[in-house]
Amino acid sequence: MAREINKSKVAVCTLGCKVNQNETDAIVSSLIQAGFQEVPFEEKADLYVINTCTVTHLADRKSRQMVRRAIKNNPAAMVVVTGCYAQTSPGDVLGINGVDLVIGTQDRHRLLDLLEEAKAARKPLNVVGDIMQADDFEEITGEELHPHMVRAYLKIQEGCNQYCSYCIIPYARGPVRSRPLERVLEAAKQLVYSGYKEIILTGIHTGAYGSDLRPQMDLAGLVGELVRISDLKRLRISSLDPNEINEELLQVMTSSPILCPHLHISLQSGDDEILGRMNRHYDTAYYLSLVERIRRILPDIAFTTDIMVGFPGETEEAFQNTYDLVEKIGFSGLHVFKYSPRKGTAAASFPDQISPQVKEERSKRLIALGERLSREYARKYLGRTVEVLAEQRVEINGENFWEGHSGNYLKILFAENGDYKGQLVSVSLERYQDNVIFGHLKK
């Protein structure tokens, strides 16, 4: 039975990617505008919203756990479950006693109306539709604003048409839908007007931006427009596939100081046979040549990437090929994760599945390599002066520091008593410790 809802306290929990967090922020913004007060998820609230993830089996389990935790926090509250797990497995979500509303990955902009419908229905309401039929970018609400932050994520597209053999996300998010150019520019200007100094472009498949628009637009064209916005200090791009980085995008990067010298280019595997089985549309020679070409024109650029270990059929030789390529490229950061079979994807039925023990051992080896490469990249900057966007104060061993990031995404701390929040300052880098570079303000 649906609960009575009092427009007072809402608590939210977000699992998964930055896109999910961006969408949660927008949902919370719409609820606050409607009169709700946000409280921590651990507290008793009148409404709980759980934005779920389904990228792995562990994500599914964690999503269910957080739904049950909300119900335990306040059995009388209304409980809304949204996101990717809700989209792909609405029956499993509805099977949890105490859930009132299941939305999925569309119709979040109708949340307030759907809450009233769930209340009137006096039984759990499932509004999950066929996401494969979605054809418009969903505007949940006005841009989410957090006055305590200086960096903002800006979602520019939804959906994915890649169908990598291991990935469930196209079935959870549907086809590519791009946010119209004028709406992206309007949202970016609003963020800058509200005080944000850095904008990070994000999406489910960011590099596919504009392929569905008419007239057609691409990411390079969008970026070229965004860097012209007055008072925007930094623009950063989230994950791209290697075959989505064209000459036009590189031209913008070399000509505009606003575009951060940092690219997250997804690799997944350093073995060509595995890349083919993954249905990735590039090979290692192309990837390596791309990195080398970009480094020639942007010597200080930072490259980060995603690596999957334990994909079906990954022999020790194939893994070693990945290890060697990662070491050769010298990434400044790695996101390593273990392959997880997802029902409904091609790879789930592939032969030669890898044991959990082998996945764990390979994961540890790559993580250790990534940590070493991160140290080596960071230490190259000791003795240099870089521009840092001061984001927040942190305390370490009783000493206060300002924390921020350079354009190439080095985490930097400097000790100063003044208020530097949101300012771009010059910092001389002195020492590297615990994945952080310490420096002093150059006045």
UniProtKB/TrEMBL annotation:
<dbReference type="InterPro" id="IPR006638">
    <property type="entry name" value="Elp3/MiaA/NifB-like_rSAM"/>
</dbReference>
<comment type="function">
    <text>Catalyzes the methylthiolation of N6-(dimethylallyl)adenosine (i(6)A), leading to the formation of 2-methylthio-N6-(dimethylallyl)adenosine (ms(2)i(6)A) at position 37 in tRNAs that read codons beginning with uridine.</text>
</comment>
<dbReference type="InterPro" id="IPR058240">
    <property type="entry name" value="rSAM_sf"/>
</dbReference>
<keyword id="KW-0004">4Fe-4S</keyword>
<keyword id="KW-0949">S-adenosyl-L-methionine</keyword>
<dbReference type="InterPro" id="IPR034557">
    <property type="entry name" value="ThrcA_tRNA_MEthiotransferase"/>
</dbReference>
<dbReference type="InterPro" id="IPR020612">
    <property type="entry name" value="Methylthiotransferase_CS"/>
</dbReference>
<dbReference type="InterPro" id="IPR013848">
    <property type="entry name" value="Methylthiotransferase_N"/>
</dbReference>
<dbReference type="InterPro" id="IPR006467">
    <property type="entry name" value="MiaB-like_bact"/>
</dbReference>
<dbReference type="InterPro" id="IPR002792">
    <property type="entry name" value="TRAM_dom"/>
</dbReference>
<feature type="domain" description="MTTase N-terminal">
    <location>
        <begin position="8"/>
        <end position="120"/>
    </location>
</feature>
<dbReference type="Pfam" id="PF00919">
    <property type="entry name" value="UPF0004"/>
</dbReference>
<keyword id="KW-0479">Metal-binding</keyword>
<dbReference type="Pfam" id="PF04055">
    <property type="entry name" value="Radical_SAM"/>
</dbReference>
<dbReference type="InterPro" id="IPR023404">
    <property type="entry name" value="rSAM_horseshoe"/>
</dbReference>
<protein>
    <recommendedName>
        <fullName>tRNA-2-methylthio-N(6)-dimethylallyladenosine synthase</fullName>
        <ecNumber>2.8.4.3</ecNumber>
    </recommendedName>
</protein>
<keyword id="KW-0411">Iron-sulfur</keyword>
<dbReference type="InterPro" id="IPR038135">
    <property type="entry name" value="Methylthiotransferase_N_sf"/>
</dbReference>
<keyword id="KW-0408">Iron</keyword>
<dbReference type="InterPro" id="IPR005839">
    <property type="entry name" value="Methylthiotransferase"/>
</dbReference>
<dbReference type="InterPro" id="IPR007197">
    <property type="entry name" value="rSAM"/>
</dbReference>
<keyword id="KW-0808">Transferase</keyword>
<feature type="domain" description="Radical SAM core">
    <location>
        <begin position="146"/>
        <end position="376"/>
    </location>
</feature>
<feature type="domain" description="TRAM">
    <location>
        <begin position="379"/>
        <end position="443"/>
    </location>
</feature>
